[in-house]
Amino acid sequence: MSITTNGPVAADPDRELTFGEKAVGLTFNPSQDPAVYSCKSGFAHVIDQMNDLRNSTDNTEVKRMASVAITEAQTAQMWAVKAITWRG
Prior knowledge:
Number of helices: 3
Order of helices and strands: HHH
Shape: flat
Largest sheet: none
Structural class: mainly alpha
Number of strands: 0
């Protein structure tokens, strides 16, 4: 798998961000790195799925699991961006 080196680097400023896009900080990409944007976008999609599930169920255990999944996806996204931008 190769890391995306071209493509969008920022969200469309003319639309409101989704919950997942806000959760991963999609608009924060100071290096304007397309790979960072692509990574964050992928995790935002997963987070949006879990948020939709959490909001559509009355099952408290499913709500809890979806919340944990959101938190873990945010953590994984941060580590993934760190790996992409590592200059060690």
